[in-house]
Design goal:
The chain is an alpha+beta fold. It contains 13 helices and 18 strands. The strands form four sheets. Strands 2, 3, 4, 7, 8, 9, 11, 14 and 16 form a nine-stranded mixed beta sheet that branches.
Length: about 525
């Protein structure tokens, strides 16, 4: 068991001061709570490491079975060699064509570049949001898809990852069936590290509804591909709790997933010579040259963590609620590594179909378009106006600005998103005219005071939010770190227009309008 001893030399007081500063920048209650838990944990630990286990420890597999039974490893030798070859060639093709990008994410009010480069592949029109960043799928060629790819090799790679997705779905369902059977039998021993999953008959205790449920938990609709070359990273964080070494990805729960859905990960690392030090009993802790995935029970300081070595072609599966109850990190080896992480993204508000329907809902209130670009509205009912302005914000800040903040990266692979984003921008622009129509209404002579107040109350919060978020997104696009990115990845503050733009009914900067509306509301209530 590893982890005993002092960490003062490696972390010292600087880490604590940095964490306190991070708390001050926290933007959400969830982030503040997470940071507070982290601080409390580190204060309780003082200057000692938590213990963790590797396969060199005698109790490693026993601890895995007892405390991590919903984590399953599928070793590379049990996967068909042909599939390995196709997947690994697909990784290299995407890398060669420059399709993987470091994300400029938002953490505790600060923009940071991820050390890992990524691309999202999956169902057409699907998105995946993590760390306040919405990624848009490069579509894999499912039935009915009409994606055009910039290169034949990119098209072939997307086809390969769809094939890998189908394979991992089958294996995940089998793993979930095995887990369900053993849980119903109240058996503690669950296989965790296998060359082959045991093929079990589910028997009479396993009904059709169970089968539907398990299939839905493995209905992967996206894969997030990752790449990192540690030798090109000038700085990687040290793992802070166990002393496991350098991290490529810090401790986290995967976000934006269907509850209790599985996650399947295919790992492809460039391994060195055969005489690696992984089996060197004299080495303290995990081998720093070998990539590992680390697991721990969230905020638990009693149960040892696990550091599981990942070799070329290994797969691991996080089943049932493991992602919710446990955290995992990726511990960097010395060689480059790709991974394909297949997920059931929670897409109820994250598909092109969804946001298109929301736009249509907002614009149902438009009676007709005027020749000068203005619109007239059917209703000025406060609830209708409030809903329209909320959708206005949703399409602007959850879709348009998220997409263009990532520059022109998606055009490297496909033109699939070009037409939909142009259409969404046109619908958004019409919503600007709707807002303008509402503002004209509240300025009308003779409008009853009560009705005017109801309208102002209905729209003011959304307009204030819009002004604040526009200021924030504009600043993010101009930030120092944003200016360091290559030209095709530089954030584009879009939509953006100058104050005298005749094509826009309202100014980009809503400061004066918001202040005037607040003043009118206060005056009316006085």
């Amino acid at each position: 068991m590893r982890g005993a001893g002092s960490r003062a030399e490696r972390r010292g007081s600087r880490w604590r001061r940095g964490s306190t500063g991070s708390m001050k920048r926290a933007q959400t209650a969830e982030e503040r709570e997470r940071e507070a838990k982290k601080l409390r944990l580190l204060e309780e630990l003082e200057d000692t490491w938590l213990p963790y286990l590797t396969p060199k420890d005698d109790e490693f597999y026993q601890q895995w079975q007892l405390k991590y039974p919903k984590l399953v490893l599928r070793e590379a030798g049990s996967v068909a060699e042909e599939l390995h070859k196709e997947v690994q060639e697909a990784f290299l093709s995407l890398h060669k064509h420059g399709c993987l990008f470091r994300d400029l994410v938002r953490i505790q009010g600060k923009d940071l570049l991820t050390p890992v480069s990524r691309i999202l592949i999956g169902d057409p029109g699907c998105t995946y949001k993590y760390l306040n960043t919405r990624l848009f799928t490069v579509p894999w060629p499912v039935k009915g898809s009409n994606a055009n790819y910039t290169e034949a090799e990119i098209a072939a790679a997307c086809q390969t990852f769809l094939k890998l997705n189908d394979y991992l779905q089958i294996e995940t369902i089998q793993a979930l069936e095995e887990l369900a059977v053993r849980e119903k039998a109240n058996e503690d021993a669950v296989p965790v590290c296998m060359s082959e999953f045991p093929r079990v008959g589910v028997g009479s205790s396993y009904d059709a509804q169970d089968e539907v449920d398990l299939k839905s938990r493995a209905a992967y609709n996206i894969t997030l591909l990752n790449f990192m070359d540690p030798q090109k990273m000038t700085y990687l964080k040290d793992e802070p709790y166990f002393g496991m070494g350098k991290m490529a990805v810090s401790w986290h729960h995967d976000e934006n997933l269907v509850e209790k859905s599985a996650v399947a990960v295919y790992s492809y690392s460039f391994e060195g010579s055969d005489d690696e030090s992984d089996d060197d009993s004299s080495l303290e802790g995990r081998d720093p040259d070998t990539w590992h995935v680390g697991f721990k029970i969230s905020w638990d300081i009693e149960t040892p963590g696990l550091a599981i070595p990942l070799h070329q072609g290994d797969c691991y599966f996080m089943l049932d609620d493991l992602n919710a109850t446990h955290q995992h990190c990726v511990l960097a080896g010395s060689q480059p590594r790709f991974s394909s992480t297949h997920r059931v993204a929670e897409c109820s508000t994250g598909t092109l179909d969804y946001i298109s329907q929301r736009c249509q809902l907002a614009l149902q209130n438009v009676r007709e378009d005027m020749d000068n670009g203005d619109v007239s509205l059917k209703s000025f009912e406060p609830a209708v106006l409030k809903q329209g302005e909320e959708i206005h914000n949703e399409v602007e800040f959850e879709w348009l600005r998220q997409f263009w903040f990532q520059g022109n990266r998606y055009k490297k692979c496909t033109d699939w998103w070009c037409e939909p984003m142009t259409r969404l921008e046109g619908l958004w622009k019409k919503m600007e005219s709707v807002t303008n129509a509402v503002l004209r209404e509240v300025k009308k002579e003779g409008l009853p005071v009560e009705q005017k107040n109801e309208i102002l109350t209905a729209i003011l919060a959304s307009l204030s939010t819009r002004q604040n978020l526009r200021r924030e997104w504009h600043a993010r696009c101009q930030s120092r770190i944003a200016r360091t990115l290559p030209a095709d990845q530089k954030p584009d503050c879009r939509p953006y227009w100058e104050e005298d733009d005749p094509s826009m009914p309202l100014p980009f900067d809503l400061t004066d309008i918001v202040a005037e509306l607040k003043g009118q509301l206060l005056q009316a209530k006085a």
